[in-house]
Amino acid sequence: MSKKNQDKLLIFALGGVGEIGKNMYVVQYANDIVVIDSGLKFPEEDMLGIDIVIPDIGYLTENRDKVRGILLTHGHEDHIGGLPYVLKHLNVPVYGTKLTLGLVEAKLKEAGLLGETKRILINADSELQLGTIRATFFKTNHSIPDSVGICLETPEGNVVHTGDFKFDHTPVNEQYADLQRMAGIGAKGVLALLSDSTNAERSGFTPSERTVGAELEEMFRKAKQRVVIATFASNIHRIQQIIDACEATRRKLTVVGRSMVNVVTIASELGYLHIPDGMLIEPDEINKLAGDRVAILSTGSQGEPMSALTRMARSSHRKVDILPGDTVIIAATPIPGNERYVGRTVDELFRIGANVIYGPGSVTGVHVSGHGSQEELKLMLNLMRPKYFIPIHGEYRMLRVHGMLAEAVGVEKENIFILDNGDTVEVQGGVARKGSKVQSGNILIDGLGVGDVGNIVLRDRKLLSQDGILVVVVTLSKQDGSILSGPDIISRGFVYVRESEGLLEEANRIVSNTLTKLMNDKVNEWASLKTNVKDALGRFLYEQTRRRPMILPIIMEV
Amino acid sequence: MSKKNQDKLLIFALGGVGEIGKNMYVVQYANDIVVIDSGLKFPEEDMLGIDIVIPDIGYLTENRDKVRGILLTHGHEDHIGGLPYVLKHLNVPVYGTKLTLGLVEAKLKEAGLLGETKRILINADSELQLGTIRATFFKTNHSIPDSVGICLETPEGNVVHTGDFKFDHTPVNEQYADLQRMAGIGAKGVLALLSDSTNAERSGFTPSERTVGAELEEMFRKAKQRVVIATFASNIHRIQQIIDACEATRRKLTVVGRSMVNVVTIASELGYLHIPDGMLIEPDEINKLAGDRVAILSTGSQGEPMSALTRMARSSHRKVDILPGDTVIIAATPIPGNERYVGRTVDELFRIGANVIYGPGSVTGVHVSGHGSQEELKLMLNLMRPKYFIPIHGEYRMLRVHGMLAEAVGVEKENIFILDNGDTVEVQGGVARKGSKVQSGNILIDGLGVGDVGNIVLRDRKLLSQDGILVVVVTLSKQDGSILSGPDIISRGFVYVRESEGLLEEANRIVSNTLTKLMNDKVNEWASLKTNVKDALGRFLYEQTRRRPMILPIIMEV
Q: How many Å apart are CA A5 and CA A428, to the nearest integer?
């Protein structure tokens, strides 16, 4: 990025386009870069062994002197989860509202980065001057309190980033969206709107979180014994409504699952959860109370194999057993890919004899989304009346559908930009066009390794997972190339060895014959030996089993 | 099974309980065994490298003299797909309706079993005497024509197996369900009803297949260019409606995808598809016609990576390209677990510039289920008025919910049996109770191997897929145990070797040191050497990387 860019506005994503998660958007004017959010995503099914995925921040580290800070819209993992990795390589100030910073601080503490990170508390009324860019905020509704959208005033015009949002006209805990401020921003003029596309495929309005509260209270009333309820740990509105349902039905509440305990602790310390005195009890106290005086709030709404709910369902939780007749409510919708896990957990709960209230089929689920549906997306578009529109946060099809909605409310078709990560929109003299691409991509994190697992390693893991591996070892004489020991074949993940002795003996014979023949032909370069062994053995095994295990020939020399 | 059983009726599943797929139910009276269906299921996500799963038929092969035959309810893979494997071990007659046998025969031909298998054509009016058991049939509605339910008249009473069903009052091609015969069976008295639970979680009625036809025709009319439509190859009713939509909109039709071509060929030869003369064209003829005169029927409605639709979406299909402005209709709902595949295919189609009509979110999907919802399940229960009820075909929670429906329509709670595969219901003197368990389970098929991949192999594949493998080879002297060559470390799927040289060098040093120390301590049993190397290396790698690759120490001796 040379001087030519100094009077341009650049807008792009390092993550968050064409995917759910790993959100990170960048707005740059001349020498000032503002980063919005720093999320992670969970690995796709072909990223074997990978723990999490973060965006490639090469562009930011190369321009580290220009980065004025990271502004956070809210405290969900796909918006803050990448911070511990990003801040290690890019120590810049982090701006967030009270709850968001509270959650970030817990995360940084765990990573040992709390001391060295500059954290700046903002609220919806804050105004920041970040070089030539001025940032203001507006309250939004989302499935976590203290969510904000961001307006970046630049010399080229105002760029609005909605964060994640819905319009909830009856929000829990009076967390109203600031329609007046949004309309005010729209009245002053919006150059470009970046808006959440997660639910762009859903028609209508997303129901209010409060509808869930009413259902929950009804279920708590009907339950004759204990209520076990699992939901997303971060959905503090819902947790408040669960507390309210406990109060209305005179139940004590205990909390199980590490992330649930963490969030409840942080949110109640910061005043985002209002828990009546004496309601919270320890898990080991529940057995002293009558069943209809007890509720248990748990993680595991996605059926995660190690979560508290799954362990309770398998009767392997250290402290809490679910009893026949208990009511278990799964107050969440399975994230695509998790349906089978949730299904299995529900199966186990039914086997125990619990009454299970869950989502699949059209049995009433107890959940509403935190993201706005089509009518709300149109409302945001009409509040902002942007000249340019950039749909964000979503798979490609969602961005496309969101683009169609923008067209429907009057944005010019050629003013709608559907970008891939790294694609830029350049604005100069009030005119936007697609600019050149910046570095972007996935950084895979496996254990302590950041980026050391790439395509070759993943391809090998995939191969190994399908048909296993055969290692062929042989020791040759340095002097005359004759076989001193072996060939030995060791397999893992291929066949059950005890029942396949004949096959492996035959395989051994084929390797021996291949080697002997090569030696008679005076072939003795290792590369040829290995290739020939691999080919002969691979062919034989495929004929016999229709499998293609990885074959690893190793030659030792003495 | 000794003489004690000779005057008992036994009912059990070898597959189909607590799972979707792999359906196989067994009814036995004294020395007569009747098997209903012989399905396969696709592997669960932890069955790495497995191609398909069939039921353990040990009980049937042990009692092979008693098995009178396999009755097939319809031609779906989860009801007939296991036949090529089962018939190899159990050569018994197979009974099916015309279309069902047509599909079975194509399958047996491929497996080279057609000549040696006795196939007996039945229709809904057939009556079979299978030893002491008499079988009659009744027409049902399902997403494939020629589906039947089965009534087995035994000395203990009538056992009814519904097969898969819905009630479609406006079926395609006049394939009416035979309500009169069902009611007649109910009037005569039903001892036990085994009924399809697939949609037991869905309230209301499943809409008629015909509603899809109306939508399709509308979409075909609106499409300005070509229509590409993907659906389940076996859904012949839907294919007929696609043909009808082509006729109504004067489009020629071409068929792509191996299974789609197969089914269309078989079904039209047998008279289950009515294709106007001249409508079918070859894929390479479509470019000669105007876009609005062409439709393309394709496999790939589940986004399967190798399917025709996915290849067209990636512009890598040999014969057909999708062009900007073409309309692509996905006339199917993603089976749980396939959502991401379908999503990616839709993304690719949008990128090409196609108009995509698909299911997720609440954008109109073009699909109805072939399985009855709760009101239809209650209707079946009330038509049959059984004394005993055994919900079949479904995950445990679906069976439980179906059981609750049966209770709601008046079946005694203690007369409802929710079984696992292998659990038996024994009936004697008109009284049913849970009997002893018979052998049952999953047989995993990987390539040509049937049952040779078990838990150990799968556990190794899982390990290998997560963190890869390190092979450590060393050649020792037979005489004094000294190291003659190595240790060498070769890794696959662990780290990218070129960027991790330091780590692997250090690993090598640790192995050398461990071996040297052991030799100085006069430890030279191979088992100890291997264990010590594994432990030391494993500890080091975990500390450095937080990964636990499989470590395979190999000692050669010269």
A: 9
d(CA B401, CA A553): 55
- Candidates B358, B407, B455, B556, partner chain A, best to mutate (most A CBs within 10 A): B556
Examine the fold and report which residue of B450, B483, B518 is the final residue of a domain before the chain moves on. Answer: B450
Q: A121 and A187: one domain?
A: yes
The pTM score is: 0.89
Q: How far apart are CA A485 and CA A465, in angstroms?
A: 30
Same domain? B167 vs B299: no
Residue B500 contacts A where some CB pair is shorter than 8 Å: yes
Q: What is the pLDDT of residues B28-87, one digit of tens each?
A: 999 999 999 999 998 888 899 999 999 999 999 999 999 999 999 999 999 999 999 999
Which of B350, B395, B464 lies closest to A464 in CB terms?
B464
Any A CB within 8 A of B430 CB: no
The CATH number covering residue B346 comes to: 3.40.50.10710
pLDDT tens digits along B487-502: 999 999 998 877 788 8
- CB-CB neighbours of A428 under 10 Å: 15
- B357, B385, B404 - which closes a domain: B357
Same domain flag for A155 and A24: yes
Which of A351, A463, A469, A550 is the best mutation test for B, with the most CBs of B within 10 A? A469
Which residue's structure tokens are 């196939």?
B119
A194 and A240 share a domain?
no
Distance CA A320, CA A322 (A): 7
Q: Rounded to the nearest 5 degrees, what angle is found at the Cα of B546, between the Cα atoms of B540 and B551?
A: 55
Compare CB distances from A396 to B18, B351, B460 and report the shortest one's residue.
Answer: B351
A371 annotated binding-site participant? yes
Q: Please tell me whether residues B300 and B243 are part of one structural domain.
A: yes
Number of domains in chain B: 3
Say what the pLDDT of residue A131 is. Answer: 96
CATH for B550: 3.10.20.580
CA B464 to the chain's CA centroid = 26
CATH of the domain at A92: 3.60.15.10
Q: Does A111 touch chain B (CB under 8 A)?
A: no
The CA distance from A49 to A453, in Å, is: 9
In a domain, B303, yes or no: yes
Question: Does the pLDDT of residue A526 top 90, yes or no?
Answer: no
A541 CB within 8 Å of a chain B CB = no
Closest Cα in chain B, distance from residue A269 (Å): 33
- Contacting residues of A for B401, CB less than 8 Å apart: 363
Beta strands in B162-315 (DSSP E): 190-196, 227-230, 252-256, 294-298
On the 0-12 / 13-18 / 19+ scale of CB atoms within 10 A, B27 is buried
A465 — pLDDT class (breaks 50, 70, 90):
very high
| Annotated binding residues of B | 367-371
The tokens describing B535, both together, are 């432990």
d(C-alpha A517, C-alpha A519), whole Å: 5
Residue B24 lies in a domain: yes
* Nearest CB partner across the interface for B486, out of A340, A373, A556: A556
Min Cα separation B276/chain A (Å): 36
**Catalytic residue numbers of B?**
196, 371
B375 touches chain A (CB under 8 A): no
pLDDT value, residue A360: 53
Note whether A174 and A31 are same-domain residues: yes
Nearest to A150 by CA among A167, A142, A133, A162: A162
Domain membership of residue A448 (yes or no) is: no
Q: A24: alpha, beta or left, given left = phi > 0 and alpha = psi -120 to 50?
A: beta
Residue A450: inside a domain:
no
- Same domain membership, residue A131 and residue A230: no
Q: State whether B479 and B375 are in the same domain.
A: no
Q: Which domain holds residue A324?
A: 209-357
